[in-house]
User: Fold these one by one.
Assistant:
Number 1:
Amino acid sequence: MNKLPFQYEVVAKAGVRTELNQKELRSLLISNLKDLGDDLVVRISSSVKRISIHIHTNRVGEVKALISSFSKSGTKPEFEITDLQKQVEEV
Amino acid sequence: MSQEMHKKVLEKVILSVDLIRQLFQGMSSAVKEWRDRIDKMNYYPVPDADTGKNLAKTIYAASEAAEKGKFRSPKQLIDKLEDSLLETCPGNMGAIMSEWLTSFLLSLRDQKVISPKTLAKAFEAAAKSAQVALGNPKQGTALDPINSSSQAASKHADQKDLNHSMKAILAQARIALEDTTKKLRELLIEKGVVDLNKIDQLEQEKAVDAGALGFVIVLEALLEGIREVSNEQTTIPV
């Protein structure tokens, strides 16, 4: 098995406060995140108050900073980081 | 499908809290049963053998949320399920399946029945949502049976018989699943993680995409659940 192009999986959940609708927010998140990795999935609640992001990346810090910049002030996003390379080697 | 089901025309099924709970129980059991086989197929996008586990966690959490709460209407339950599916959706396929299920349920939220027409609308909405949630949608993945089932649902939206419509949806999804074998090589070469000998072996074994397999298992359980509940509701003998 070769080395993975993106070593880490980031799964983030965050509360958001935005004037954007679901489509606009999704488009903005995708355009900001897609160059930071692969296998990006951007999920937004129908109320547009909460987001869930999945991405494979080597730039964990940048992904975290970007998602944090979208989160509602006074709240902290939750991040779950998995080392995929390690996970693959353990299979 | 039982012989009896072939003899009846099922126009619609009444949407209820019990129906939705039963559907999630059925999907959860099916994925649990298939979990290890799905994991074994997991080479794309990352060969970490967890697609089945992630799907199982996602749907089990939703099923538990549905069981534990008290809901006066399908709307209330669907709102609760939306929350659960957003909070517990591990891995790539957990996220895609959650998006599909959420959109499917939200489309039915204001409906009183599941008919070929409302089912088609739910499949269309769910397929569209799953597609737009992805940063880089790819063919040869779960999106193939997702899109095929949606197309079949639309094609049969004017059918009188819900059973006929569901049968057609499932048949198209299964064809799309089998066809993912043809696209697996290209996807794996593009990722560059799995070596060529292994890719040859997977091709010979007619391996399918794990996410697509997981989606079809969920779909089978979902449609079978609607069929089972329909036995308890009114049907019109031919």
Number 2:
Amino acid sequence: MTIEIAAIAGSILFVLIAGLQSATPLVLAAVGGAFSAQVNVFNLALEGMMIAGAFAGFAVSNLTGNALLGMLAGAGGGMLVSAIFAIATVYFKTDEIVVGIVINLVMLALTGVLLSTLFNASGQFVSTTAGTLPKMWNTFDVLMPLAFVVVIWAHWFLYRSRTGLRMRAVGGNPAATTAAGVSVNGYRYRALLIGGVLAGVGGAYLPLSGLSMFTVGMTAGAGFIAVSAVLFGDGKPLLVGLAALIFGIMGATAIPIQQFKLPSEYALVLPYLVTIIAVSVKGIRDAKRRGEELLT
Amino acid sequence: MNWTLVSRHLTRYSVGLAIGGVVISILLVAQGENLGRFVNVVLASSFVSTDAVLNLARWTAPLILSSLAFLIGARAGIFNTGVEGQIIVGACVAAIVGSSMQLPAIVLLPITTAAGAAAGMLWAYPAAWLFRRYRVNEVVTTLMLNYIAVLLCNLVVRVFFLAKSSEGHESITVTSRPIAESAAYPVFVGSSSASWTVLATVLVFIAGAIALLSTRWGDEVTAIGGSRKFASYAGIDARGVQFRVFLLSGAIGGLVGAFEVQGILHQFIDGSLTNFGWNGILGGLLAMNHPVGIAASSLFLGMIQNSQLAIQQFTTVSPYMVQLIAPLFILIFAIDPVKKAIQTIRGRNDN
Amino acid sequence: MSLADESLIGGGGFGGPSPVSPGAAAVILEGLRKSYGSVHAVRSASLSLQAGQVTAIVGENGAGKSTLVKMLAGVEAPDGGTISVHGKKVQFRSARDAAISGIGMVFQETALVPQLTVWENVSLGWETSSRIRGIDKHAIVDRLSAITKEYGLFVPAERQVGALPVSMQQQVEILKVLYRDAEVIILDEPTGVLTPQETEGLFKAIRVLRDAGKAVIFISHKLNEVLEISDIIYVMRAGEVVASATPGQLAPRDLAQLMLGNDLPIVERVKPEAGLPTVLEVSDLVCSKFGSAEKVIGPINLRLSAGSVLGVAGVAGSGQDEFIATLTGLRPAVSGRIAFQGKHSVVIEPGPAQSRSVRALRGAGMAYVPSDRGSVATLATRPLWVSAIAGRQRNPRFDWHGFVRKRKAREFAREIIRDGQVKAHSVESLPSSLSGGNLQKFIVARELADNPQLLVVEEPTRGIDVGSAIGIRQRFRDLASSGCAVVVISSDLDELMEVADQIVVFFDGAIVAEMDRNDATVESVGAAMTGLARMGGA
């Protein structure tokens, strides 16, 4: 009996730690996505930004042996992709969904090409020279509490700073914002770039947080889970961060719950199922408020 | 023929092709290859022999159908990002139905195909209903359903329909039991992978193109996508037609999955259908949502897809180039620098 | 006309701008001009604004009032003329410049961000903040409450603007203007969204602002309100300031007359014979107002005989748009019924399934020319021949077992182009390639092609050159002579006087006046549009 309790406790602990580890990149990327949501841009390119961050972080860390420099590079990579996204959607006014989907596909394939060009590897490369991230108490990466701090900071920034107020105004009513003399496009760019930096750091965490190895497609849809978290939390950083955390922890239960004869899919499907429900509920409430004034 | 419009489109395609060509050349040179040789390999792998052409057909067919699925929705003003999920569900159901019954081909074949299409339609239903009734954003709902589809089908196959080897060992990968002989579309020729599903695809595509371009229904759908208010003014039941088109889009997606299983794979294999949906959407966007354009864009994308093996064998280029080319072109094309340039010039003159 | 030697309005005729000692004026506008392409919105407007006064600007739709104040508020740049603030000439490149000079405007459509709180909206763009500690919310809220106390505009600072009633949202907009230390406050048609009680609240606030020394500009088409609240009234017509007066000197009739002018020829029309069959009967029709769950339009009662022309007048937003949408089957009614006796009888009752209603009405011989030519009456993305068969696509002439008979459709398109004398390059061109006048001729010809029993037409000649307009009006008259009933909605009162036998006037969601053509004058119709009929001053 005690062995079983110990086993369960062990599993729970394992899930929590593994969960925090897989949640960290999600939380960072999701908070980045929250900025886009606040300026009313549907950012599907989080996955592409994470991929860019992962590759840039890995490459620089491999080159310099310093994982923190790698993190910085990851931020840069994410920002570069978000710059492309921003120019395409804000300046060229291209449809943001199309741009998002396409950027993700391009980045995925591009890292494969770059991997073979720069590292002569096909699909995967293990680095012997990359640094590792500093750890606290030998278990938690420094980045985990950082992610938590980022969530709090994002909330403060959006609701207490001048830039944050203006971003929310841009997302709420661009016409009124222009009338108040605030540049709508300027703040859209700012929000998207911040998002890119965060998603890039989140992506860089993946290769640098353990095995110092880069695999093409290692983000494995994390960017889309981040998108789900943004939708579920309606772009509000605290809620979005919480959702990403829960999604990450739930995702980590995928393997352990097989012990209890439950299929891992039950755990993995949660973010998407929960997001559809949340979005539908919101949509139904909005429709009822509009008086269902749907003129044919 | 509206010549100004046509010339505008041609400029856009040429500029896109040019810029894309430059970017790809740079990447190729970095990998020790040049554009000319690369293009040769790509073209050869699709045109050098009858087998090559048939292989091209094998890859082009699902893209045509997938693009059609997206296109039909887009014509009615629906952005169906869920084609990927509808394909997977269609494939899964077709694999299950095709492997669960022993019936003569003349019965089992169409039933399996129909089951796949119905599954795709059913998968689109929740998103379609939410959109019709409450205007819930269809991009979000269909997108989420994609991931749920992957997980659900994996679960169902793994738990109930997992393939077993002759010794009774269960398959390691998520693969379903093979479908019955009578549920499979025969292959054209032994040496290539193209099967009669290609012909079926072409028929469906032609039917779809005719429906969109020549029927009153097609005109109504296009009108709804152009302006819902105009459609209502003209006495069209805009909401109803849009809803049914959404379902039809899902059904065609399911059909893609069914054809893949019945014609090529003969099983549901996890991961084998990845990106058919996304590439279909890319093809639709590249063709600017015109049915005839889809044939061209699918051929272009199919050609690139078909050259993957040849690129690996005959060039020093990474096989990931294949996956890079299509979305790269779409990105350049979608941004439409020509339009912006024209707007900036006009803007200066108008003021 | 210089400002120095004006006289007040006397008995008949009209006078010029009133005498004001230029020294006391806060703002002087002189000779302002603004054109949009070929449309001269403001030709030459001059007026002066005094601190501590409520200045009203009145005029019909298109007289130029909104454009004039937009130039003052920096939203539009004038093509010519000068603006002087406290004696200094100024040029505004943006609304921000105007705000710095002390001029602020409260727009007709709320320019607030619904998700933000009151204090956030008020301080947007003007925030007190520091890099490190962010927005100094206390400073902002303190300043805000000082202002609300001073002017008696009590609004909860922490509530989300979107949750506030419209009248309070308007007060937030006023606070926004005051927060930027405005000396001149412009209110553009502020009472359209307010109930009578809320209007009283607004007027109280305006009086406080005036007594505090602000210059308040009040734009409205509602003459009763203008007479109640203003200290001085300027009248605009056709882009110019044509008169000014103080409320005490004017009866409402005089004001209406000034607004509308009185030099229009009145055309004799043959009154249709009595005893003709009723084509349209509307009984107690109630429809919901656009964008509002509570307010409704109606109940409306109308009867229309064959061969007669009904003119519908009313300021935008008075309910005629909702009425027409319900009449043509595009929107369901809340209650009441519409009985149309065309080629056969069709009755529309409350309930969904609009497309069936639309088809039924069309099938029985109702034709409809909407005001939105580009996105409702025609399809912008497809060639003309597609728009040509709009509404007729199920007709066996154009539909063969579900297939579109494109040759017949193109043929039909050519026919209506010929009949309507439309100048179009080809039936393959897009509707956008046609000029406004030609597109309208095309649409009208299309709608009249099947000899309808009832034609409903909105704004038939808006933005159309004189020649085409005359031709279009002639078609209506011919149509009526041949027995078709016509309903014409138009903001051009001259046009209504020309073509209609009877005129109904919408105001604030109901029909307030019904006049026979021979008894109506442009002044009386215009006056009814301003609510005067309700006041009993018509």
